[in-house]
Specification:
Layout lengths: L1 H20 L5 H29 L6 E3 L5 E3 L4 E2 H19 L16 H13 L6 E3 L5 H8 L1 H6 L12 H6 L2 H4 L4 E6 H10 L7 H6 L7 E6 L2 E6 L2 H12 L29
Parallel strand pairs: 4-5
Antiparallel strand pairs: 1-2, 1-3, 5-7, 6-7
Helix pairs in contact: 1-2, 4-5
């Protein structure tokens, strides 16, 4: 016991140093580690206490006998032990009420919603396998783990863009077509936007950058659902082909405009005629 108590001194010292330095906000992780040896110490102390209470200097005691009956027998289980066992059984459900629902399975919550999981799942299902992903502060790592399984995702899948973030300078400037010559899928969620804009006040990814995703030439929004958006930057070769095709449309072969003519407006309506 003396050695175990002495071994805990450095652990408590590190915890106090981290707490005093305010270098993080996850103090309960250290407390959880400390509670492991505390549990061992508590169980040992409880066993010693029960032995002392029921020993009675080697005299007979009333309790549960090994044969299942109740009476005087030096080998039986004393009444105090029975009361402690009952107390622990009563307290066990109270402890489970605060237990993490599932530390090994991804489940929807306020930070990771069903809509986001479904959105990423659809993106993975219909994606071009050779185009990499990129996201806010990192790639679709947790969603890849959920969709394909953690072991496969981290060992054999080699998912393109597994941990790749969108560079903050590129996000701010909106020059995706210049930076991503080989094409890219860029996934954003409502949680990303709220966290970066409202919580971090645009420290790395500002509101203007999120708005520019839908207004930047060469960036196509290919998927949109509640809380999830997927934008696609085509490879440079594909952009060149599309630009050549668009340049081949002349006044002679352009499709006719509805309500066209000299007075046609920008959306094919005669000038001065508003939308219905």
């Amino acid at each position: 016991m003396t050695y175990l108590g002495a071994a805990l001194v450095p652990v408590f010292a590190v915890f106090l140093v981290v707490l005093a330095s305010a270098s993080g906000d996850m103090y309960f992780r250290y407390q959880g580690f400390i509670m492991v040896p505390v549990t061992v110490l508590g169980a040992t102390a409880l066993a010693y206490a029960l032995d002392g209470m029921e020993e009675n200097d080697g005299q007979q005691r009333d309790g549960w006998r090994p044969d299942g009956g109740w009476g005087s027998d030096s080998g039986g289980i004393g009444g105090t032990t029975v009361l402690v066992i009952v107390l622990l059984l009563v307290l066990l459900p109270l402890g489970l009420a605060a237990f993490h629902p599932s530390p090994y399975v991804y489940q929807p919550n306020k930070q990771v919603t069903d809509a986001q999981i479904d959105g990423y799942g659809s993106a993975f299902e219909y994606r071009q396998s050779d185009v990499q992903f990129a996201g806010i502060r990192g790639g679709p790592e947790r969603y890849v783990d959920y969709h394909y399984g953690t072991n496969r995702a981290r060992e054999t899948l080699n998912f393109p863009g597994y941990k790749d973030p969108i560079p903050t300078s590129v996000f701010a400037a909106g020059n995706y077509t210049e930076h991503y010559e080989d094409g890219r899928y860029m996934a954003t969620t409502r949680t990303d936007r709220l966290r970066e804009v409202a919580l971090y006040d645009g420290l790395r990814y500002g509101e203007e950058g999120f708005r520019a995703l839908d207004a930047t030439p060469g960036v196509n929004r290919v998927m949109s659902s509640e809380g999830f958006r997927l934008h696609y930057v085509p490879p440079e070769e594909q952009r060149s082909i599309e630009a050549d095709a668009a340049g081949g449309v002349t006044a002679a072969n352009a499709p006719p405009q509805i309500g066209g003519g000299e007075n046609a407006g920008p959306f094919g309506r005669p000038a001065g005629v508003g939308a219905a």
